[in-house]
Design a protein that fits this description.
alpha+beta; seven-stranded antiparallel β-sheet; 11 strands; 26% helix; 27% strand; binds N-oxalylglycine; binds manganese (II) ion
Length: 209
């Protein structure tokens, strides 16, 4: 069930995405959901259930350690834990609001936990693949307690593709949520000074089978 406040909140997200391409908030999900998600991510990590992330999709997928060095654990839409399901449900409300107000045609959501081990980065890129343009909106939830400026690992959001000097840096603080247009917003992850966790996903044009 979504409350009236939720609907107003999601409409505000849509307005900002329409205006500037992205939106950031520290109150997308409640604390108990956050605590649970970080516990799940940590246990996948401790059990060695992350693999090296690549570039591209399908047969075009390549490991490119000069571009990105994070590790990921994909979530299976058909085998979500109750906490993952709660997050999916919240994202689904966002999906419906964006479809209604921005005339998007997002049909599904895909997501992975990501870890940037110390020294890891992801160079400047767009999230929408050139070959198959499934990804419409990127949604990232950060899961790092006590993150400080000295820990690096900021998300650098470029304001436009012409001028490299115009950007906003976002700290990957516990509970911070950012969403942005996957086809338009250039971004990068600056080298991280310590293990950096997130739950990163995409609203997609097509449904996954
Ligand atoms: C990505 C990405 C940014 C971040 O996974 O495509 O750009 O801050 N992540 O983790
Ligand atoms: Mn990205």
């Amino acid at each position: 069930m979504s409350s009236v406040e939720d609907i107003a909140f999601f409409e505000q997200i849509a307005d900002e995405i329409a205006l500037k391409g992205w939106f950031v908030t520290d109150s997308f999900v409640g604390e108990s959901l956050l605590d649970g998600l970080i516990q799940e991510a940590s246990s996948y990590w401790e059990e060695g259930e992350f693999s090296k992330a690549g570039i591209g999709t399908g047969v075009q997928l390549q490991l490119r350690p000069e571009i990105r060095t994070d590790k990921i654990h994909w979530l299976d839409e058909h085998q979500l834990t109750p906490l993952q399901q709660q997050y999916w449900d919240r994202i689904d409300l966002l999906r419906q609001t964006l479809n209604r107000t921005l005339y998007l045609s997002a049909r599904s959501f895909e997501a992975h936990f990501a870890v940037y081990p110390e020294g890891s980065f992801y160079k400047k890129h767009l999230d929408q693949h050139q070959e198959v343009q499934h990804r419409l909106i990127t949604c990232i939830l950060y899961l790092n307690s006590d993150w400080t400026d000295a820990d690096g690992g900021k998300l650098r959001m470029y304001h436009n593709s012409e001028n490299e000097a115009e950007y906003t840096d976002i700290m990957p603080l516990m509970g911070r949520f950012i969403c942005f247009r996957s086809d338009q917003v250039l971004h990068e992850v600056l080298p991280s000074g310590r293990e950096r966790f997130s739950l990163t996903g995409w609203l997609r044009r097509e449904s996954l089978i």
